From TrEMBL:
TM region(s), chain numbering: 28-46, 53-82, 88-110
Short name of one Pfam family: Phage_holin_4_2
The name this protein goes by in its record: Phage holin family protein
Keyword terms, alphabetized: Membrane, Transmembrane, Transmembrane helix
InterPro entries to which the protein is assigned, alphabetical: Phage_holin_4_2
Organism: Paenimyroides aestuarii
Amino acid sequence: MKMIINLIVTAVIVYLLANFLPGVHVDGFGSSIIVVIVLALLNFLVKPLLQLIAIPITILTLGLFLFVINALIIMLCSYIVGGFQVNGFFPALLFSLVLSIVQSIVGGLMNND
């Protein structure tokens, strides 16, 4: 039950961020649910491989390259999901940063119950 609530809350966050951030567009709430599911799968399957390959660059940049990997995951999700569009690297980077921050805040508030 907690996973479903987390999925719905994250879908609401994605939908709201797409309405506020420039360069990001979601067709509707159904598309934002699909975006959340695809992002979860990409974070589970693809992101660890990218992090493993990018260990030297990540060490040289003191971990800042992980932001680039997050933006690439968002752009890949945009390519896979038809109702989700990101117009370039910097909107994807901004979207991933704000999504992570808002998810952390909302997750902290949900766990305090």
